[in-house]
Design goal:
Keywords: Signal. It holds the Pfam family Stig1. InterPro entries: Stig-like. The structure is a single chain. The protein has 538 residues and is an all-beta fold. Among the domains are: 68 residues, no CATH class; 116 residues, no CATH class. The chain is 2% helix and 42% strand. It contains one helix and 45 strands. It has a five-stranded mixed beta sheet with strand order 40-41-42-43-44, with no helix packed on it. Strand 5 and strand 6 form a beta hairpin. The longest helix has 10 residues. It is globular and about 80 Å long.
Length: 538
């Protein structure tokens, strides 16, 4: 495996960038439309036959009103039932109230599946039924306003609950929480690297074009506003929304950019304008932002060219005046016992962070730069005491976790994503041919209490039809954790229940609902697919 760029978001971003540049799609001269992985040519457009209700399973096959397209078949949306040949909501359909064919009298309405005299508080009458316009996907914001494909109703607006970015082919994919159904894949930019969501808008930082694109959370392929990220060759690692401000972290230019919402200046976007910036220092390579009060905690990975001398630390930035962010100090991570496997060289190389009541927790990759960036110690967390700045290491266990890559809170637990130790086949586009200790670790009271492996039993590699998973970023909806796969473009869904992991979509264990979501299909011309980021839409 080759060395990463000094500003790489992960130890493998350089490889993925190489694949992206080397794999520009070139159709035959007579072709008018060339589609990226997961999309097919339908007329003059590219369509997702697995999730497009206008081209469901085949070009031109249109789902009926109220139906969604899932896995190439037209189905009723979540909560609906088939009565005759139509999808109906038994809770509010006056002709099918509580059961197919159970019609309410003309002077009554269907309220929560029962024929009653009036609607209950908080619901409104639509036809002969009672609905909550704020969250009814068949009456979203107004009677008869049906949410398309697998979108949910968020405060009267149709949106996806979770959005994934496919770095390798520049697509966004929406997912419905609970059902874990995917919407159609939509093209947005060419190198989306980080996501955030605010007020019905998905923000996507595009590294290839150095812009912050905005798309409505229900229309992911349509850009409604774009804002410059300033410098060329930007590597926007993270976006933090803290209304009315948006902060973008750039690991190449070592900057924290501040944008402020000042109204819908363009289309239906947020109307952002850059109002401030702070430089965190040359060769620091900042990774993510964790906010605690008026202070940002920003892990500094460092760069190979400077022997990581400006990394292996966490910067603290004061944002009491958001338009004038100020670097206060750095918390060093160089004195920690990193549990080196052989007593040799290993570095913290911090990669992600989250702030909870107990302190700020930082994910440590614990790699050896002198040995092709392989793990030379277990994946670890560092807990920073915000009062005295003390740092306390937490060993996540080498058998379950190497190369800790992300950390998020789920209730009173922490979930850590472990990228593992992967071996890549450089002759076939840098796809993983072997990987170990990649998955999730559940932490409670500074102690690992459960683990989940992403690729158990998948040891044959791609030649044996086994697309190995390499863990990536996390998004949390309730007690469900959505984890991306940066090798084969999938999304795994695992619930946290009673201090344990319960698989919902993944390796198809007896308790699972099915296989991991094929969010970003592997294009044979690229051989690797990086589901680089994922965000829960409020």
């Amino acid at each position: 495996m080759s060395r990463p760029l000094p500003d790489a978001r992960s130890p493998w971003l350089t490889l993925l960038l190489t694949v992206l540049v080397a794999s520009v799609l070139t159709g035959c001269p007579e072709e008018k439309v060339v589609c990226t992985a997961g999309l097919d040519v339908c007329g003059a457009e590219c369509a997702d036959l697995q999730g497009d209700p206008s081209n469901c399973g085949a070009c031109g096959v249109t789902c009926s009103a109220g139906e969604v397209c899932q896995a190439g078949a037209c189905e009723c949306p979540s909560g609906a039932a088939v009565c005759g040949e139509a999808c109906v909501q038994l809770a509010s359909d006056a002709r099918n109230c509580g059961a197919c064919g159970n019609a309410c009298p003309a002077d009554k309405v269907c309220n929560a599946g029962s024929c009653t005299e009036a609607c209950s508080p908080g619901s409104e009458r639509c036809g002969g039924g009672c609905v909550v316009l704020a969250n009814d996907p068949l009456n979203c914001g107004a009677c008869g306003a049906v949410c398309p494909d697998v979108q949910s109703c968020h405060e009267g607006r149709c949106m996806y609950d979770v959005v994934t970015a496919c770095f390798t082919n520049g697509q966004l994919v929406g997912i419905q929480a609970g059902t874990d159904r995917m919407g159609p894949r939509r093209q947005l930019g060419s190198g989306v690297q980080a996501l955030a969501a605010w007020d019905g808008v998905v923000l996507a930082a595009d590294a290839a074009r150095s812009v912050l694109s905005q798309a409505l959370a229900g229309a992911l392929g349509t850009v409604v506003e774009e804002d410059s990220l300033g410098a060329v060759a930007a590597s926007p690692n993270d976006i933090l929304v803290d209304p009315p401000y948006v902060y973008v972290l750039d690991s190449t230019n070592n900057t924290l950019q501040v944008l402020k919402r000042e109204g819908p200046a363009q289309g239906q976007g947020l109307g952002l304008r850059t109002v401030g910036q702070v430089n965190l220092g040359a060769n620091t390579s900042p990774q993510v932002i964790a906010k605690r009060g008026d202070t940002f905690y920003i892990p500094l990975f460092g760069t190979a060219g400077s022997d990581f001398q400006q990394g292996n630390a966490v910067a603290r930035v004061n944002v009491s005046d958001p338009e004038r962010p100020r670097l206060v100090d750095t918390v060093p991570l160089t004195g920690l016992d990193l549990q080196s496997f052989d007593g040799g060289t290993t570095m913290a190389l911090p990669y992600a962070a989250v702030s909870v009541d107990a302190g700020v927790y930082v994910a440590l990759t614990n790699l050896n730069p002198a040995n092709d960036y392989l793990p030379n110690g277990p994946g670890m967390l560092a807990r920073i005491d915000p009062v005295d700045g003390g740092v306390h290491p937490i060993n996540l266990g080498a058998a379950d976790c190497l190369n800790a890559g992300d950390v998020q809170a789920v209730g009173d637990h922490l979930v850590v994503s472990c990228l593992g130790e992967a071996q890549f086949d450089t002759a076939s586009g840098y796809r993983a041919k072997a990987v170990r200790a990649t998955g999730l670790v559940l932490v409670k009271d500074d102690r690992p209490v459960a683990s989940y492996a992403l690729s158990p039993g998948c040891t044959g590699g791609p030649e044996q039809g086994c697309n190995l998973a390499v863990g990536g970023r996390l998004a949390v909806v309730g007690n469900a954790v959505y984890v991306t796969d940066v090798n084969a473009g999938r999304v795994f869904v695992v619930e946290v229940r009673d201090g344990q992991f319960v698989e919902r979509r993944g390796n198809s264990t007896p308790d699972a609902k099915g296989a991991a979501l094929d969010a970003c299909p592997v294009d044979p011309r690229r051989t690797v697919s990086n589901a680089i980021d994922i965000v829960a839409v409020p």
